[in-house]
Amino acid sequence: MIVGILETGDVDPTLIDRHGDYPGMFRTLLHAVDGDLEFAVVKVNAGEMPGSPAEADAWLVTGSRHGVYDDLPWIGPLKDFLRESIAAGVPVVGICFGHQILAEALGGRAEKSDKGWGLGVQDYELVNRPAWLDHVPDRFSVLALHQDQVVALPAGATVLARSPHCEYAAVAYGDLDKPAAITLQPHPEFDRKYMDDLIALRAGRAIPVDLAEKGRARLHQDVHSHAWAKLIVDYLKRAVG
Question: Which entry of 19, 96, 146, 165 is annotated as an active-site residue?
Fold first, then answer.
């Protein structure tokens, strides 16, 4: 299976030597489940765009420091491509920014939330459990770093998980038994060291210092990133199969 990674954000240059780039993080995450997966990276935020949804068996949209509402030349074409992929029956997985832009592309809305930052280890609960969601416990935790979030779902979307801070934390699109796409607001591809360095880098700049300290203090807590990695791989195999 070839998974096309639509890269929409860059790791800060001061962190990339220690942590690598976002496509590398996803390779590590998903190869821990299936080492035979192949990946093709498309640097969307640098102006690249696939010629056709058929260039990969499935597509994964990364996180980004940008907002889906930003006036950037690649935002509109990416939305168009995601709509084309769904229409062509090519499965899509979206993480953080990818979660938000797919909702926007299909008629929903994402914006900077008045609830503020979701930061560090965040706790969620499942509200729907189709059969393919069997790897994830009813209550689970994943690393997160976001102010933006989905605030309105498009038609045909089903909430899978939520938290008091994030009402639409995980979403499936289309037939719940065999969805056309699944998306997740937090970051299963992040590890604790990268999250700690990223919060420290942004503390006192984008993130208030006291909030950053609270977020870093919780990073020792267990997360269910591998459960989500297994879910993503199994979902893609079933969808492509």
Answer: 96
In this structure, the dihedral spanned by the alpha carbons of residues 171, 44, 76 and 71, taken in order and rounded to 10 degrees, is 100
Catalytic residue from among 135, 165, 187, 224:
187
Instruction: Return the H-helix or E-strand segment holding 99.
Output: helix 97-105
Is residue 38 part of the annotated active site? The answer reads no
Is 189 a catalytic site residue?
Answer: yes
User: Are 1 and 237 within 8 A, CB to CB?
Assistant: yes
For the chain, the domains span 2-240
Model pTM greater than 0.85? yes
Dist. CA 61–CA 64, nearest whole Å: 9
Architecture of domain 2-240: 3-Layer(aba) Sandwich (3.40)
pLDDT in tens, 148-206: 999 999 999 999 999 999 999 999 999 999 999 999 999 999 999 999 999 999 999 99
Give the whole-angstrom CA distance, residue 84 versus residue 6.
Answer: 14
Q: Is 156 left (phi over 0), alpha (psi -120 to 50) or beta?
A: left
Over the range 156-183, which residues count as b (16 or more CB within 10 Å of their CB) and which as e? ebbbbbbbebbbbbbbbbbebeebbbbb
One of 7, 104, 146, 189 is an active-site residue; which one?
Answer: 189
